[in-house]
Amino acid sequence: MSTAGQVDIGLFLDLESRNGPRHQRAAAAVRDAIRAGRLAPGERLPASRALAADLGVSRWVVVEAYEQLTAEGYLEARRGAGTTVARAAAAQAGPRDDLPSVPPGGTQPHLDLRPGQPDLSAFPRSAWQRAYVAAARSAATDELGYPAAAGMPTLRRTIARYLRRVRGISASPDEVVITLGTAAGVRLLARALVARGASELVVEEPGWQVLPAVARDCGLRITPWAVDEEGLVLEGLPRADAALVTPAHQFPSGAAMSPERRRGLLAWASAHGAFVIEDDYDAEFRYDRRPVGALAGLDRHRVAYLGSVSKTLAPGLRLGWLVVPPELRPAVDAVLPLHALPSALDQLALARLMESGAYDRHLRAMRHRYRERRDALVAALHRESPGTVVGGIAAGLHLSLPLGDPGRAQEVAASLARAGVLVAGPERYSSTSTGAIVLSYARLPVERAPEAARLIARSLR
């Protein structure tokens, strides 16, 4: 007899009556057992090796099934405690047609496809723990004092090497400033620009509204400017003090700035003594195109570069970096004391994670996972709604559905919300209500893509 909170090794899972790859069949069998009440919240599942032996499958099959169900929220995995049924699993609504599309009460989303976060269930906990413990053990005594205003020298050296290798940016450690993330980096740059007498910032329209709001709060006047399939439109671009762009993967269109536009934007900045602020979010995740180099790799004097681990690891780490053009550095240094920094140990842990190769391995694994999820959702959308235009899929973690009319886009987003599917409507990224909805596949398991596509197609109709 099993002890409380545990499950007998002889857990019955019917794999033979199901179709598909074995790991998907195993995941479906466990999911059904949870829904049927045969596995209660808090109960411990067999170890992957034991269950694999019992089912006559490879251990990989069980590990994949457990990871899939953990990502969906059915299971929880804790070091030393094994794998257990999540406490909230009883409320999970899976991809069965006989389940309601909106949870009881309508308070929890059935599917959260809003952009902005990666798959947090895939955070490399073990690798981060090892890096953090190693950093704590090896940190010099003086490294535990107040960090230097620009960040820990160890991490700044690591970031400089990483950017040189991965993004083609030849920056010295002294040019790197550690931040609490991209928004913090924009705040730092905006205050430095205002201190120099700057007044106007050009931003992409449509685009993510948070960063312009941060710059406006610091005293800059915001001028929205159109983008197309080649990035920021340069024709008629006004004389301004700076331009904030996402050249590797424009949000929300997904367009990559063309080489001609890149050269033209840098020429504009040089002619007007302006700066380009490059938000390099999502640059690590590309699927159908060659890597696009950073603008900062073409001009270190005119481009301020922003990066973070918000999409590659987790936004909760609050770790980012800024590469400052030499001309801006005195103004940035002057306002640095006003800005908070990540903890010294978090900075040292990230440096360890990167130097060990674990960060690169994690990115490779996530690139594969996100591509699978993207492919599954795009294929399902084409099946359920033939002729639907899907944009921005060559890279990143989101796609867009251009609907033309802003009113219709708002109606579709509202319809999806009533069905329990949360997406980004035009009000989330456009000051002029461009007609498209944006959705993320980062947290959408492959097997739930058909369900998501059915609900989206229903709302589109």
List the helices and strands and how they pair.
Elements: H1 22-35, H2 48-55, H3 59-72, E1 75-78, E2 82-85, E3 111-112, H4 125-138, H5 153-166, E4 176-179, H6 182-195, E5 200-205, H7 210-217, E6 221-228, E7 231-232, E8 242-245, H8 259-272, E9 275-279, E10 303-308, E11 320-323, H9 329-335, H10 344-355, H11 358-384, E12 398-404, H12 406-418, E13 421-422, E14 435-440, H13 449-460
Parallel strand pairs: 3-13, 5-6, 5-8, 8-9, 9-10
Antiparallel strand pairs: 1-2, 4-11, 6-7, 10-11, 12-14
Describe this structure in words.
With 461 residues, the protein is α/β, with parallel strands linked by helices. The protein is 37% helix and 14% strand. The strands form 4 sheets. It has an 8-stranded mixed sheet, with helices on both faces. Helix 6 crosses helix 9. The longest helix has 27 residues. The radius of gyration is 24 Å and the shape is globular. The N terminus is likely disordered.
Key terms:
461 residues; 37% helix; two-stranded antiparallel sheet; disordered N terminus; eight-stranded mixed beta sheet; alpha/beta
Concise description?
The protein has 461 residues and is α/β, with parallel strands linked by helices. Helix content is 37%, strand content 14%. Residues 1-10 and 90-107 have low confidence and may be disordered.
